[in-house]
Amino acid sequence: MDNIGFIGLGNMGSSILRAVAKASDKFNISIFDTDNNKMELLKHELKSSNIEIFSYDSIESLIKNSNIIMICVKPQILPKIYNQIKDANTNDVLFISIAAGVTTSTLEEHLRSTRIVRFMPNLAAKCNKSVTAICGSTKTSATDKNLAYKIAKMFGNAFFLDEDKFSAFIGISGSAIAFVFEFAHALALGGTYEGIAYDTSLDIAFATMESAKSLYDVDKENPISLMSKVCSAGGTTIEGVKTLEDNKFSSAIINSVINTSKKSKELEKK
User: In this structure, which topology does domain 174-269 adopt according to CATH?
Assistant: First the structure.
C-alpha cells in the first residue's frame, strides 16, 4: 500500500486530503503543517469516519515515511522548504505539487528529483468536483503520471495537458469558475428584476447550467448545434441571444480567457 504524505493543510490541501482519505484502503495517509491545531482537528474529523491519519512534527519525518508527497503550500512558501524536502528525500518519492505558477523544471532543480508531477486544481476540490490539469516533468515515468491521475480523479475530473497550456487552462477552468459565478449572479439579477426572488432565481440559474451540461453529456453535440435547437424563429431565445451578441458577450468571454492566460504567464515568469 502506498504511503502518501501531505505538506500543507490549507483549503486546497485539506480538501484533497479528505477525498484521498475516503479511499484509505489504497493509501496510508500522513500530514505535516506548521499549525499543529489544524492537524489535530483534521485527524479528529477523519477518525470519526474510522480513518486514521498520522501526523509528523517535521517535513523530514513525513518524507522519510512516505513514497508520495503532496506539496500543498502557497508558491511563496516553497523556497523556504526546498532544502528540507530535498535533504529528506532518501526514498526517491513521487512529488505532486499544486503550487500555482511553479513549473516542473523549477521543482526538478530545487528538489533534485525527476519524479515530479504538477496539479492545477480548482476550488471545487472541496466537494470532489474539481477540474484538475496534470503534467509531469520530461523525465517523469508513465507509471508515476498514471498514479497521479488516479489521485486527481479522487477529487473530480482530471485532464493531462502540456505544461505550456496550463495558463490557458486557468482561463477556462481555474479562474473561469469565478466567471460562471458571475454569469449565474447576472442571470439571477435578471430574474429578480422580473419579479422572481434572488435566491430562487439563483437556484434556477444553477439548475439550468446543470441541465445544459447533462444535455451535452448525452448528445455530445457542438454547443452551437444545441443552442440552435432552442432558438425558434422569431422566438424568445433568439431575442436573448441577439441581445448577448449586441453586447459582445462572446467577445467578452474570449477576451477574459485570453487576458487571464496572459496574466498567468506574467506571474509565472516572476
Answer: ProC C-terminal domain-like fold (1.10.3730)
